[in-house]
Amino acid sequence: MWSSRSKAAAALAIAGFLCLPARGQPQALDLQSSVKIDLAPDTPLTLVQADLGQSRATARGGAMVIDLRMSLTLKNASPRRVRGVTMLVAAQEVTPGGRASVAVPSLDVAPGATFPVRIDLRLLRPLGNGAGPLVNVGLDGVLFHDLSFYGPNRLESRRALMVWEAEAARDRKYFQEVLRARGREELQKVVLASLERQAARPRLDVEVVRGPAAGEAGESVMRFAFLDLPSAPVAPIGGTARVRGHEASFPRIEIRNRSHQAVRYCEIGWLVRDETGVSYWAASIPGVGRELAPGATAEASQSSRLRFHKGDRPVRIQSMTGFVSQVEFADGAVWVPERRVQELNPLLRVVAPSAEEQRLTDLYRRRGLQALVDELNKF
Amino acid sequence: MKRHPSEHQLALWAGGDLGWLAAANVRWHLSGCPECRRGVEEFRDCRRVLGEAGDPRINDWSKLAAEMEANIHVGLEAGECVGPEITGRAVPARWKLAAACAAFVMVVAGAIWLRGPSAWTPAPGVDGAVFSAGGHLIQLEQDGRSLGLRHEGAQDVTYRAAASGAVEARFIDEDTGQVTVQNVVLQE
């Protein structure tokens, strides 16, 4: 027989056990303590609303998985139209030095108008670690219609937003010209062809391991073939990477500035072809880390190892092609390939369409031809 | 081409540095000469090994010099212990100096060969960080922790890697209709 004291102790123990959060059971996150949204007082964007909706923290073994589903509503508090924005996300305690960003290019937000930015973040960290905000969210940059820029630019957002804007202007102009010169039916055909090309474009999953790796048995040095785009301010001269099966490492590309302006940055697009002859737009090789004077040459090289998959299937590399995909001059202006060049070269058809082409064709898909025509007439 | 190409020509061929006319001749010869093809493979292997060794740099010359001096002393003392007594004509001083220099050069070369790659190893934490993109998630994994961005439900996602260490996902947000570009990067 149990004494009354024993029964009370057992009841307390059972109650205590039931009150413990079950292992693996999702816990609601406290917005105030988990996420710090930091927008400077003079920022041209103000935070209207921050919703953590379905955010959850789940214990798994000795680790905690945190799913933050943030929806921010931002207001354009400036007198200029916003063309693009990049939000910076840091979880210093989880991955020191690791940064995530969410950019929304191809916007056209009028002064005083609001727009959403969704950030779906997943963090994995040891249990019972640290105090204070887990995630810091801030603004890395805003690009306006007059190409002026605001922001700390920690992730070189200005350059990325400028490139997207240059591509947007190029592709919008193309669709506008088709509409004006050939009419609505031709525009529809062009849009349908673009949607078909987007759907048929082969895609890859990729993995990058940072840092030098020891040479592996069976590796060979493979040379890049290059597409020389005549209008590109920078020309690739030669380049190699070590290749073994579906892995490529230590890409090195020599480039020459053939323009009359100093170049601050350039990027080489990296296409790989598999054993079945299918080409993929797989990666990019960031170019020079210093200013490149007219006529000067430099080598772009990276100590990293890349692996290419398609689902679970490794994609074995049979050949590689490089092309200059973007250039930033010392004065901040950018160059992107011409649309005509992209359309004429079969290899470049595997490159993803611009953000603006994606947006315009998606607008057609969702809301029809008239909505697309109205959108093109806005600019 | 009946005569075999010189080693010099084979080495240039292996590196792709031979002029086009000479390259055409060598290519013709290689098509019918297994011996020279083996030579070319050997040159390629050498290039690969040298490439893997990277660009050796030494950060601490004084430490390296001290190690080499100690090694030479150990070698000389060991030689005195086990070597036969030298009788007859003495070895000229300049030959001793030349032998010491040769030993010094070999030790330096060995030290560079063995220690070279560690001189340019990036800081811990950055080296070995893994970025992945696929399955509606891009993420950085580092020391058993991860930082990722999800895009569940997004159609036609384009993934791209930057060889500098970053991954990107681009897609249309089904709710907002906005093009969204997610990126995960590691800043040193």
CATH domain class name of the largest domain in chain A = Mainly Beta
Number of strands of chain B: 6
Number of helices of chain A: 6
Task: Report the mean per-residue pLDDT of chain A as an integer.
Answer: 87
Order of helices and strands of chain B: HHHHHEEEEEE
Largest sheet of chain A: 11 strands, mixed
Q: Which class do the helix and strand fractions of chain B yield? A: alpha+beta
Nearest-angstrom radius of gyration of chain A? 25 Å
Unreliable runs of chain B: 48-61, 81-89, 111-125
Which value, in Å, is the CA radius of gyration of chain B?
A: 28 Å
| Overall structural domain count of chain A | 3
Ends distance of chain B: 55 Å
The helix content of chain B is: 40-55%
Q: Give the overall shape of chain A, derived from the CA principal axes.
A: globular
Strand content bin of chain B: 15-25%
Shape of chain B: elongated
Helix-strand topology string of chain A: HEHEEEEEEEEEHEEEEEEEEEEEHHH
Q: What can be said about the biggest beta sheet of chain B? A: 3 strands, antiparallel
